[in-house]
Design goal:
This protein is mainly β. It contains no helices and 14 strands. A hairpin with a 7-residue loop joins β2 and β3 (about 50-65).
């Protein structure tokens, strides 16, 4: 197993049309957009030796097929914050460096974590990504341990990193509060057969204080 022999590359095409018809007192009658996306991915193997090094990357290209300033807001296309005109196209590149010793791996750079407390959904045209680092270990039988920290967030219709924030559709949280540090740690413990116990805790620091949260799941 070497850096080049275990390398893999792929190209995906996604076509999304989203139509939301708003009722009531909404200032916008509808969000309606159509876009074509391409995702090129590359993942190397690891260099030989006790410490293996590798690289992963993704490039995104989004092309507008249909939209207008009165129908933006679907999350498919970025738009001008003043005129609300949607972009004709946008692209970006994300790189991730990785290092591995035995069954323990460290990844840093562009991340798309899938943990109980931080999850980058893959169901949209492009996924949300984060900037940070994550350590994952399967050094022990029937056990997966992980810890990570992210400091920036790249939304699925954006090409730049922004401070972390919490979505608050019901007004329970302060949507203006931002953070530059989100830490999480946890593990999966297989007890036999399909039975798995998952423990997770997080620490989220904002300008107004610090939030700590823990969960367990069987």
């Amino acid at each position: 197993m070497t850096f080049t022999e275990d390398s893999a590359a792929s190209l995906k095409a996604r076509n999304y049309y989203i139509n939301r018809d708003y009722k009531g007192s909404s200032p916008q009658s509808a969000s309606r957009e159509w876009a074509q996306g391409f995702i090129a991915s590359f993942a190397s193997g690891y260099t030989p030796g006790p410490l293996g090094l590798g690289l992963e990357g993704q490039a995104w290209l989004d092309l507008k097929l249909d939209s207008s300033s009165s129908r933006v807001g679907t999350g498919l296309l970025p738009n001008n914050p003043y005129t609300h005109e949607p972009s004709d196209e946008y692209s970006e590149l994300g790189l991730t460096t990785k290092a591995r010793i035995d069954k323990t791996e460290l990844r840093w750079g562009t991340l798309a974590p899938a943990r109980p407390v931080i999850y980058a959904s893959q169901t949209w045209l492009f996924s949300q990504t984060f900037r940070g680092a994550e350590l994952k270990s399967q050094q022990f039988d029937n056990m997966l341990l992980f810890l990570g920290q992210v400091d920036r967030n790249n939304l699925r219709d954006s090409t730049d990193y922004q401070p972390l924030s919490v979505a608050s559709p019901n007004g329970r949280f302060n949507p203006a509060a931002t953070s530059s540090r989100f830490r999480y740690v946890g593990g999966d413990f297989r007890l036999g057969g399909p039975l798995v116990v998952r423990l997770t805790t997080l620490s989220y620091e904002t300008c107004t204080g610090k939030v700590t949260w823990a969960s367990s799941r069987v």
